[in-house]
User: What shape does this take?
Amino acid sequence: MRRPGYRGWWAAAGVALLPTVIPPVSLLFQVVGSGAALVIPAGRLVELLLNTTLLTVAVTVTSVAIGLGTAWITTRVRLPLRKGWMTLAALPLVVPSYVAALTVIAATGPGGLLPGVPSPYGFLGSWLVLSLFTAPLAHLSLIPGLRAIDPATEEAATGLGAGRWKVFGTVTLPQLRPTLVASGLLVGLYTISDFGAVSLLRYDTFTRAIYTLYRGQIDRRPSATLSLILMVLAVLILLVERQYRSRAALHGRRPRRARALLHLTGPGRVAALGTLGLYALISLGLPLTVMSVTLARGLDAGQAIGSPGLEAARSLGVALIASAVTVILAFPVAMVITRRPGRLSGWVESAMWGAYSLPHITVGVAAVGFALAWARPLYQSLVYLVIIYAAIFLPQAVGAAQDSLSRASPDMEHASRGLGKGALATLARVTVPLAVPGIVAGGALAFLSVMKELPATLLLRPNGFETLAIRIWSSTAEGFLTRASAAGLVLLAVSIVPLFLVMSRELSD
Assistant: This one.
């Protein structure tokens, strides 16, 4: 039986999860309750499905290939500053897709930094941008998988006369297959959810079509219909990803002895360092250089950059508030998952990650419909925006707090209660201090995610409330690249240091 002392935690966890119910319930009501499915032509649905599928498959294959290369080099090869390279390969996560699209648009076409190179609008540009800037997702997923492979299996193949490439193809890859599939599904989930890159690079996927229908028609049922379809696709990918993630966990134990790193010399060493350096140059150096040069050119020409400081203050303010609320809501959820594991807590965790998997454009459409139907005073309010942020990014904070709590034995809490301390005293003096590292990391992740968030902000923000993300997206779409570059540089400057600290912690041996 559940201890009486945990009834409050279960009640608090239930309250924390209430906002995650808004998107599916609202979309089902808008579509099923109004017959909205009839307003989308079948031909249009097929076109969007084919475009989205083509982009998702192409990006997934390319991204996983890049991530496998960077993960293998940084885990298997003896390099100077190896952990630094490992972290550097993960840092492009700080670059939102709309900032990457801004880089491509500013660097190409008439007046771009690369004369004679046409702007790669459409599929090509979207594929390049998303492949390069989702590769860190595969990189981060594959590092634990590579570390978990027992070196004895590869050494046995080498002892039987197999060369390095044959060992990789016949021994390493088969053991890595569950992790490869799981990381590919993670990249695919991100790709079908992306709005920033495909909207700016004019490639017609579900997300771009949803926003076009939302903004272009008074009747919101067509956008709700597409949102529901996209939500179903995302949930299906999540279910498959979770299945493969559980399979990958079977190989998740660390080998009993440390692996001897490869000592490459000559061309091999140059190739390894060159690969990592080239990726870092393209994914981090290029955006920073292009935006800096574009900003300098614009200022020399007398172009106005607006007020990025005001947008930065708004972004920082709402991100700080939203991350604090998210951490507060995450703590009771993490407590019931770690301290009361079981079927019910498993359902709590699944519901939370299910909400996290939903494309943010669909969450925005659903949240607008919910507010207009049942909570009109909240519509276009900062309070409602913060609530939706917390619902979207709750799993990030829960996962980090859960990690810290799972490392600390609950016997310490029981000992405190046995010594006569009350529930609140034990919470303040034992439980919370144990969870502080995870709480801080989860808050930092939520803060960074809110800073970069575009589609939900675009649909739910109060009138006139522009964040850095909105400024970058709208200025790029309107051709004001100087203004967009100024805001982009501010966003990266604010985000890169905390992300570097988080990634350094996550990638430590």
In short: The mean pLDDT is 85.
